[in-house]
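pasting input
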Amino acid sequence: MANNNEKSAIILAGMHKWYGDFHVLRDINLEVKKGEIIVVCGPSGSGKSTMIRCINRLEEHQRGQIFVDGIELTNDIKKIDEVRREVGMCFQHFNLFPHLTIMENCTLAPIWVRGIPKKEAEETAMHFLEKVKIPDQAFKYPGQLSGGQQQRVAIARSLCMKPRTILFDEPTSALDPEMIKEVLDVMIELAEEGMTMICVTHEMGFARKVADRVLFMDAGQIVEENTPAEFFDHPQNERTQLFLSQILH
Amino acid sequence: MSTTKKYPIGMHPALPPPSGSVGPVRWMRDNLFSSVSNTVLTVMGLYLIYIIVPPFVEWAFIDSVVLGADSRKECLKIMGDDRGACWSFVYKRWGQFVYGFYPVEERWRVNLAFLLVAATVAVVLVERLRANKALMIGALLLPVICFFLITGGLFGLVDIPTNKMGGILLTMIVGLTGIFVSLPISIMLALSRISKLPIFSILATIFIEFIRGVPLITLLFIASTLLSYFLPPGSNFDLLLRVLIMVTLFSAAYIAEVIRGGLAAIPVGQYEAADALGLSYWQSMRLIILPQALKISIPGIVGSFIGLFKDTTLVVIIGLLDPLGIGMAAISTTEWSGLGTELYVFIGMFFFIFCFSMSRYSLHLEKKLHTGH
Ligand SMILES: Nc1ncnc2c1ncn2[C@@H]1O[C@H](COP(=O)(O)OP(=O)(O)O)[C@@H](O)[C@H]1O
Ligand SMILES: [Mg+2]
């Protein structure tokens, strides 16, 4: 395992997690190479969010190992901070900071965590806000933006930290249908630029288009793992087949 | 119907509202006379105002006496048949009401301190305070400057013992110290109470529940009497300082609970987003969580401040003379006895002005900090 650390962005090795008595993640093994796009799907409650939240230590795993950019996640706060600096995250409900403007949302972490001068952080923020196509909203507050715009700001906010990996937890499932595309377009662009991404999503069009691998999770386990074409056209496991028949009707 | 013009689909312009749907007459119809019961209540309200306000204004302002009387008897003589308020004792004892027994020749120091505080308040109200370092340092230095100005002992200023301080000066010392010192303490208490580390949360909980379970008067008695038993004999622990500590701790415990409520209202997503960006605990508290939690808590915090400000009158019980104490001393003299009503109205107005201003400012602050969500 250790000799793979150099090429791998993320390694989960024999990872388990419990919430109290509830065994939520069971023997998760996953290796994500740099620049790889992984799509994770599966029924609600199967542990998808929990798994990706372990990767930046929003949740603690109890057995097995997690390596991010070669750094093993343990109780060591320094290591955790180091990992969080390199891994961005976008949430289902955006979690923008409502008391700060879009610009402040984007510059806060670069200034305070990376120690970048304010001016430079603002230039970087503007660059990424242009990239997600909302530079004109920079001085508004999150509450004044639509859901799709907020999620794009959330992506820009992650990008401002210049992460090597971004984790997406159902970034489009809280959005009105007409806004999903604008967010997916940004994600596709990121994927094409070589960002390492793990996306929990049920947007199968997105998965087919950019994913290198699709994982199917059920009851805390990775049940099936394949290229998008194989995964959608020839699902092996019957639980995968059932799930796909439900969402692709 | 017939006057409504037809526009092509999608081309309907914004039109002014029909007449009678806006304006003061409409407002009165909607808010004061919208139904029979509403109209009855409005009429009753107007009647109440009519029977209370004019006689009060007459008593307090029109028929009242301020100057030219040295006792209640002289007041009555001046007023003749139109019995109004006799404010003369307030006028005669104005110095005591404001400064307590602060030496007359040193009162300029108190005036200067009041002026500095007023100037700071003015700056805050005008809102030019945009994260300006000089102003921040000034604001932090202000209490220190005021402390030395009022107590003396530095720069050749004569030492003034705290038992000379009374009246509005005392109210301000206790009220403002309580407000400014209790806020940071209460934030720390609230954070400790919700801390994952049991030692912090248990200690904070015990402290908060103890203080909240005991009346302020009891704490003040503890400050004035009981503490002497615990202190080494012969040590001279200033009474005013003890009172300040008790009042501050008392208000900190209450405000801590208000802030805890504010903290509980912040969605976990905010903590997670802060963590995911790599902010440390203190950074996420200071930059993300507390600004939002304190904003939600403003009404409660200001409510506690108002309570604290009014509770300063309780120091009378342990022998400190705030304006109420000064006034009670005044009306227990033979010249001014029988002026209870005047005294309580005067003290009431004094506190009302300060508390109402705080309340209005809190509303204004809430509006200003609202970012639309
Ligand atoms: N903080 C928690 N405490 C206890 N159980 C939890 C907690 N978070 C999630 N769970 C449970 O863990 C399981 C997996 O949750 P989650 O990872 O959110 O699923 P998914 O994202 O796949 O819908 C669910 O059964 C959920 O009820
Ligand atoms: Mg989930």
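fyi Residues A 19, 22, 24, 42, 44-50 surround adenosine-5'-diphosphate (ligand 1) (CB under 6 Å).
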